Amino acid sequence: MGINAPLNRKLRMALVGGGAGSFIGRVHSIAACLDNRAVLTAGALSSNPERSKASAADYGIADSRAYGSYEAMLDAESKLPEDERIDFVSIATPNHLHFEVARAAVEAGFNVVCDKPMTFDLAQAESLLETVKNSDVVFAVTHNYTGYPLVRQAREMILGGELGEINAIRTQYIQGWLRTNLEKEDQKQAAWRTDPTKSGAAGAFGDIATHAYNLGRFMTGEMPDTVSCHLKTFVEGRKLDDYGTAVIRYQNGALGTCTASQISHGRENDVEVEIDGTKGSLKWRQENPNEMIFRQNGKPHQIYTRDPNAPHTNAAGAGACRLPAGHPEAFFEAFANVYVAAFDDMAKRAAGESFERVNTVYPNVYDGVEGMYFIQQCVNSSNENAAWLPLKHAAARR
Amino acid sequence: MGINAPLNRKLRMALVGGGAGSFIGRVHSIAACLDNRAVLTAGALSSNPERSKASAADYGIADSRAYGSYEAMLDAESKLPEDERIDFVSIATPNHLHFEVARAAVEAGFNVVCDKPMTFDLAQAESLLETVKNSDVVFAVTHNYTGYPLVRQAREMILGGELGEINAIRTQYIQGWLRTNLEKEDQKQAAWRTDPTKSGAAGAFGDIATHAYNLGRFMTGEMPDTVSCHLKTFVEGRKLDDYGTAVIRYQNGALGTCTASQISHGRENDVEVEIDGTKGSLKWRQENPNEMIFRQNGKPHQIYTRDPNAPHTNAAGAGACRLPAGHPEAFFEAFANVYVAAFDDMAKRAAGESFERVNTVYPNVYDGVEGMYFIQQCVNSSNENAAWLPLKHAAARR
Amino acid sequence: MGINAPLNRKLRMALVGGGAGSFIGRVHSIAACLDNRAVLTAGALSSNPERSKASAADYGIADSRAYGSYEAMLDAESKLPEDERIDFVSIATPNHLHFEVARAAVEAGFNVVCDKPMTFDLAQAESLLETVKNSDVVFAVTHNYTGYPLVRQAREMILGGELGEINAIRTQYIQGWLRTNLEKEDQKQAAWRTDPTKSGAAGAFGDIATHAYNLGRFMTGEMPDTVSCHLKTFVEGRKLDDYGTAVIRYQNGALGTCTASQISHGRENDVEVEIDGTKGSLKWRQENPNEMIFRQNGKPHQIYTRDPNAPHTNAAGAGACRLPAGHPEAFFEAFANVYVAAFDDMAKRAAGESFERVNTVYPNVYDGVEGMYFIQQCVNSSNENAAWLPLKHAAARR
Amino acid sequence: MGINAPLNRKLRMALVGGGAGSFIGRVHSIAACLDNRAVLTAGALSSNPERSKASAADYGIADSRAYGSYEAMLDAESKLPEDERIDFVSIATPNHLHFEVARAAVEAGFNVVCDKPMTFDLAQAESLLETVKNSDVVFAVTHNYTGYPLVRQAREMILGGELGEINAIRTQYIQGWLRTNLEKEDQKQAAWRTDPTKSGAAGAFGDIATHAYNLGRFMTGEMPDTVSCHLKTFVEGRKLDDYGTAVIRYQNGALGTCTASQISHGRENDVEVEIDGTKGSLKWRQENPNEMIFRQNGKPHQIYTRDPNAPHTNAAGAGACRLPAGHPEAFFEAFANVYVAAFDDMAKRAAGESFERVNTVYPNVYDGVEGMYFIQQCVNSSNENAAWLPLKHAAARR
């Protein structure tokens, strides 16, 4: 069977953002091409045309396809013959630019893979949702942690009832890199992520708590009801939160907690999820992603490893693996799993076949909206002394 | 140097509670005698005189010192010659009996080691505080986790400024044993701990969240300001909370979280503390108590093991060790550390020397009051939709 | 039921060795008395009568029972009335004194608990075996790691066939404290343990490889056939091995490896055992003793925790626990488990009942002989360029 | 800077082997292309022309470049214009075919990346070494574990003296997948790996012990002197070893141990290395590759994580990272690191620049020879009752 069946050819990728100093641009490029199903073909890597072309060489993009702006790129690519034209646009800019690029790409008929948070604010997200709904494109949002095989394994176990009714969802995302006032030291990543004009209304809660909250939602499918949130800015002079904790009531009665930190010395990227159900409990940590602990009273603690061949590995888990057990897979492979799931739909679209547009395996525009709602309501709750505010957005999907 | 200098003899212990089916009575007896500084001499192990005597044989207590009630014991022991009479009373009954036993023992002039929570409610605790203040006895409360060498090491590091200003205190105490309705199956431990007439106003929050909260307080010395708490009862028909989470604002601006569960499948006794300061962060888990991770940006993660001979081990940590590194110490030894610290003061009292009565190494009646205040305010907050309530009790001590 | 039934009284302990600077003397005293079944009554803590008496106060031994030599002690105690006289002698001297003390104690009719290695050399061990056989005393050797609940659990699982036929036994005992020439710095422990006139023919292999090898033997019951050993002395000027590795062929065809080190920087007391059988495999580490991993192809890795109430915990494992799961037990409790098993037999003997003298739960004189044979054959093999030498001693018992 | 400077274009890859059922073919393809520096252009994926073409579609190889044999491929590619022709050949066939493919490719002037063990036997390896020496090609052997960032960090630390003189090197490679007679169940991987006509003289020792031994050599640079080895076949009817242990004497006096297993239930791919030096010790495990423990007496245990920005990360470690700390990298990225190091030299060669041919960062033909010598001497030693045999091959390089 050929690549990207029924299309049987590689998909052509365009990257927006990702110039010198970018972290996530390179991630998108590696992840998208990891399985040899896509080839990076075009880019608007910088708004400065010269820098855009210079960066293109780093990525192996031909000069002719290195554009000085996303507008120029969309315009030029639209005019290319179908068998040369890009298939999808990956958006790896700072947050405040996501919306305009995504909207333009969708309106031009290109599939989109957009980094998270999806937009700068909720209004943009809701607007983008309408744009996507009115189009026929594939639209993915890179809540990349959902791509880990054991995260997908957990989701399938939970939706299949193996944990029983869900009572508690504890999530944490602990980092330490912003412990000091790095944004004043000309560190590009720190600068835009702590700048409310680029990052949005939240700092840690926009950048990382969204991931943690999303993981709990993805793994359990439980619908949120209300949230109470308390945000803190511990580093002097910083304009956005660098620490915070949210308590979440789910509609089924479950209680959730979500804590995010950027100021915990020495902590790297510690995303943890613990889920308690009436029949079993789970724990997973992103920094050791090839293991998950499943526990049931009266039984030994069971360590599920990423093992595509194990009888206890379900289809969702096994389908996300590239290697046998003991050969660790990690961040890039998980990120790539978001891409390849979207590729399946892009290939169907290109071949004129129908495909699911709401309940996709990969995070999509609905999840993007929900993420923005989470950020907005957490910030609002924190501003109102941790008041309980609604958290269930109309667009939330199981 | 002799045992219990300047007293130079073993201390005589009396145990109240601890008859058949008791867990904590045996713990007190082993912990108190572990270092050969005390000998279990008398007991009122059951309110049933026959059962009391039967249990005494298990403990090696002579029949003549096995009493049918604590009142009878205090009365009889008071009349014994000074060189036979008990020195202290350990209280290991269900919670609702702590107060009356403790008050009577103090009033009879005996030192007391009381299990936690110290009393049934705050009013009793405040009353007992006055009783103790008006006496000259040594009064310890077994927040036993404070006895772990690395917990004491952490406290000394933090009070000495090694972590800088404290920003965040995350604590968890996760168990799973009450996942099912064990209290209906004639399990003695489950029965009283879920019975509001014996356990008090809270379930999980009285039994275990108090420990977790106390650990954060002990390790950092930070004073609480307000609390918002959300309690849940997930097991049908249960009368007390079996899950909950509290958010705590400290007076210095730090943010705390404390989550407790009795319904997490397969989880045993997972007390975890994470503390973030401006200069470093710490993590400690009770289930692996001989390790603590100390992290600082730009340095490798540093695992401090329980090592009395290491240059980085401080006096508080080293003083709590009995064995060199790599020979693990655990629950009993930590529990015993609370006892031996109290013994030091008991020996001074018996020898007529003065001793500290407020800022002791071991948890004392002040901490007992604070624990009861924590329980009351958490329950009240939860009843008021997680409202923010004061958490700083006048008796709180650093 | 009373203590030490059918005897129904505490056993009286005498300690030989254990004066100032001793590590293992204090361990014996705490372990023996931990369960309140023995009371330290007499001691010959030092060969210097004044120091012996001074040390006695530390241990709470009355002056009248503090002796200047073990001979004096055995003599005096033998003449005391039966209800005052000691029941057993614990030997915690340097290795070269074990034999004479043990023989004298046995010949005087006292039970003995002897530290390991049991004697200075094999000839002494074989001689002592005869002495013990000709007596009716209880004789235990403190291969204390056999007392860990999960080690006993493993033994029962393996002997019951749960791992199938045993193919491989990998053991390691890694320390780092003798990395430098500590014996030249007046460190008492280092001094005698590296001195061939006190420690015996081997250094690391006598002090710690014996433990590791014994654990493999204890857990599997497999009989050794031959050994090839390679010893090294890495620290200049040291007279005994501080590193080495042995390969062991077992009679059933299994292959064993045993590596011991005293020169591995930062390593504490890392005893590890991995056992492979045709039906399952096990791994246990002494530094985290409340966990054991049991693995079977096609199943999740199963973590057995020390849990006396779990359905998968067998009688041997549960019987060695004092606390429910999650309340860690450790070194002292394991050491105490060797003692209490011996106490059961001492009580029977004192009550005139019969008791098992070969296949005891606790390590005994047969195991002591086997340990000395292991040391001798490892040293001999190493001296002969790692030649294969017999390892099955006639006294070895399953 | 462009890709593969000074060449500034992607390298064209040909894959030999890797048809349906192959594990390692897919690994080579993903790893080689991960960084967008190579594109898979041609293949001889199967010796059956039809199957070769069918497999080509899976890999996105054009039909015109899908060959029915490696001979046909080398012949046809040699005739293509320079700007179309392949740059290198990756060999992912069963072991017995490596030699002929590699020799032919080298002789045709193509660079080669060959899986390990490099050849079927030592004679082939030595012959191939001469062929490579007489050519000007880049020749890499995928001892892929050397590509892990922390392995390279360790090597640079050790060669720089941070561990002092090396005393001990303990390696293990433990698997369980061949616990049963899988080769009789038509499992392709098991079939050829246990077949002496395809795998070579050794089973576990050829397939995995070579990796473990190579890691110790790579990390320390220490030269071996002699080896004593004991191989076992535990699964009935199997023709090659599935378990074994080797003791290695290094020329500097260090002692090494290397144990490999394919029959340890539930064990996945557990490559562990522990190294003891006079100044420090290291431990690294492949299954958790983003951590390494560095220990020094008197200091806390130091966990080095894969952190390109940490001050304690050296150039070799940092240069092997693609992601900041806490975003785990794993097997593919390590494998890719072997490739990109070879690409640097391929680019130089293509641009007519000189490049190092012996002491390369990536494992090369010299290491391939040494690996074959290790296998041969281990098998011979085992056949001679674990006799000590020479292990230093003349081609061994530091």
CATH architecture of the largest domain in chain A: 2-Layer Sandwich
CATH class of the largest domain in chain A, please? Alpha Beta
Largest interface: A-D, 46 and 46 residues
Query: What number is the mean pLDDT of chain A?
Result: 96
Termini separation of chain A comes to 32 Å
What's the main sheet of chain A like? 9 strands, mixed
Oligomer: homotetramer
- Write the CATH fold name of the largest domain in chain A: Dihydrodipicolinate Reductase, domain 2
Q: What is the string of helix and strand elements of chain A?
A: EHEHHEHEHEHEHHEEEEEEEHHHE
How many structural domains in the coordinates of chain A?
A: 2
Helicity level of chain A: 25-40%
Protein name (chains A, B, C, D): Glucose--fructose oxidoreductase
Organism (chains A, B, C, D): Rubripirellula tenax
Pfam families (chains A, B, C, D): GFO_IDH_MocA, GFO_IDH_MocA_C3
Domain GFO/IDH/MocA-like oxidoreductase (chains A, B, C, D): 151-282
Describe the protein's architecture and organization:
4 copies of one chain form a homotetramer. Chain A is an alpha/beta fold and 398 residues long. Chain A folds into 2 domains: 11-145, Rossmann fold, CATH 3.40.50.720; 148-325 and 365-390, Dihydrodipicolinate Reductase, domain 2. Chain A is built from 11 helices and 14 strands. In chain A, the strands form 2 sheets. In chain A, strands 13-12-11-10-6-9-8-7-14 form a 9-stranded mixed β-sheet. The model of chain A has no long low-confidence stretch (mean pLDDT 96). Chains A, B, C, D: Residues 151-282 form the GFO/IDH/MocA-like oxidoreductase domain. Chains A, B, C, D: Residues 12-143 form the Gfo/Idh/MocA-like oxidoreductase N-terminal domain. Chains A, B, C, D: Its EC number is 1.1.99.28.
